[in-house]
Amino acid sequence: MSDDFMLDTDDLTRRMDGAMSNLRTEFASLRTGRASGSMLEPIQVDAYGSMTPINQVGTVNVPEPRMVTINVWDKGLVGKVEKAIRESGLGINPQLNGTIIMLPIPELNEERRKELTKVAAQYAEHARVSIRNVRRDGMDQIKKAKADGISEDDQKLWESEVQDLTNTYIKKVDEALAGKQEEIMQV
């Protein structure tokens, strides 16, 4: 039989690292009181029949600490960009000036800070779900190998290795969330 089963833990690790990287990008998009071009990164615009990041339909600038501007290249997309920003949950009210969209960043009040910590928690939960999906894929590979004839001891060994990897990454997500929530709540 196939007692030489080897689970590709490097692949599982790489995919879990991808979930963490995505979480860091989403956390960077949460504003903490200062304007930043990265806060617009997760926002997608329906441009030319496909979802496109904002930085691919216009130039994003931060001319002052409380202002972000987007110079949209195609005048026909200005309304779509504005709509995408309004629906993004950032809590920013875009102001139009021709093809330039100005985003004044309001001071964060206590209520908005609490909302942002909830958004951060949602991002963290998405990352946890992604990590658990990677775990499920690994467990499915182990089950398939068991059907192909690996021993029960090997099965348990691989399952515990996948679970340990999952626990490590879930802990990283929780730590990142705690740090981001602390940063948001800082006045």
Explain what you see.
The protein is α+β, with helices and mostly antiparallel strands and 187 residues long. The protein has four helices and six strands. The chain has helices at 9-29, 78-86, 110-147, 152-185; strands spanning 44-47, 50-53, 58-64, 67-72, 95-97, 100-104. Strands 3-4-6-5 form a four-stranded antiparallel beta sheet, covered by helices on one side. A hairpin with a 2-residue loop joins strand 1 and strand 2 (50-53). 26% of the residues are buried. The mean pLDDT is 86. One of its GO terms (cellular component) is cytosol.
- What is the number of helical segments per DSSP (H or I, 4+ residues)? 4
**In terms of structural class, how would the helical and strand content be classed?**
alpha+beta
The main sheet orders its strands as 3-4-6-5
Q: Tell me the span between the first and last alpha carbons.
A: 63 Å
Low-confidence stretches: none
| Major sheet attributes | 4 strands, antiparallel
What's the β-strand tally?
6
From the spread of the alpha carbons, the general shape counts as elongated
Helix content: 40-55%
**CA-based gyration radius:** 22 Å
- Report the order of strands and helices: HEEEEHEEHH
What is the typical, i.e. mean, pLDDT? 86
Strand content: 15-25%
Would you kindly provide a brief summary of this structure?
The chain has 187 residues and is of the alpha+beta class.
Helices and strands in order:
Elements: H1 9-29, E1 44-47, E2 50-53, E3 58-64, E4 67-72, H2 78-86, E5 95-97, E6 100-104, H3 110-147, H4 152-185
Antiparallel strand pairs: 1-2, 3-4, 4-6, 5-6
